[in-house]
Design a protein that fits this description.
The chain is mainly alpha-helical. The protein is built from nine helices and no strands. The longest helix is centred in the middle third of the chain and has 34 residues. It is elongated and about 70 Å long. The N terminus is likely disordered.
């Protein structure tokens, strides 16, 4: 497990008759032919390699599991490009690097997007060169709003992120989430309202603890 050694039927619990050849090249050929069990062989043998590479690139706290799935999805979609000159594990590590880069760029976009949403929510106008105090206030508020956003259902959160972070039009978001344009727009608005309401509740609770009115 987690190595580039040829897989065997004992390693993955399948019979010898199910294996075309006891080599990675043979399993790849079976994958190209559409053999679902061969995909499972490659996944089980290499998932630890991919996980380790992504953990090293993205660090703790990252959503590694989703990134692992993305690596294998991309690799399995490009199996015709695997020529065997490198080990399959090394080939997968190239996909892992690309997925990690995209994840890091997405994280940066999300931070910037949430800071913009925070400034809008708080009525702040940062300008081109904000003061350190203003920037700190927006950054802290953005972190709070991001936490509230994570508490929403996928139905609300995903359209919100696709709109504010990925900057997609509502029509395209509707296509991706499988909903009507009207329903998608409503989900985005409900997500905005839910995040702002969570902030208001938090501020009211803070004011009560301090013995002041919001």
């Amino acid at each position: 497990m987690g190595t580039d050694e040829p897989c065997t039927s004992n390693q993955v619990g399948i019979s010898p008759a199910e294996v075309e050849a006891d080599t990675i090249a043979g399993v790849v050929r079976r994958c190209r032919a559409g053999d679902a069990s061969a995909f499972e062989v490659l996944f089980r043998q290499h998932v630890n390699i991919v996980y380790g590479r992504l953990r090293a690139l993205l660090g703790p706290g990252a959503d590694i599991e989703d990134s692992v799935q993305e690596v294998f999805l991309q690799a399995f979609s490009n199996l015709e490009k695997f020529d065997g000159r490198a080990t399959f594990g090394a080939w997968l590590r190239g996909f892992a690097l690309n997925v990690a880069r995209n994840a890091m760029r997405a994280k940066g976009r999300r931070r910037v997007a949430m800071e913009g949403f925070a400034a809008e929510t708080d009525g702040l106008r940062l300008g081109a060169r904000p003061s350190p105090e203003s920037q700190l206030a927006v950054t802290e508020l953005a972190a709070k709003l991001d936490t509230y956003l994570e508490g929403l259902s996928d139905e609300k959160r995903l359209p919100f992120i696709l709109h504010y972070v990925e900057q997609l039009e509502v029509k395209e978001i509707a296509r991706q989430v499988g909903a009507s344009v009207k329903a998608t727009a409503a989900r985005i608005m409900r997500a905005r309202a839910a995040v702002k309401e969570a902030l208001a509740r938090d501020e009211r609770a803070t004011s009560r603890r301090r013995g002041t009115r919001p």
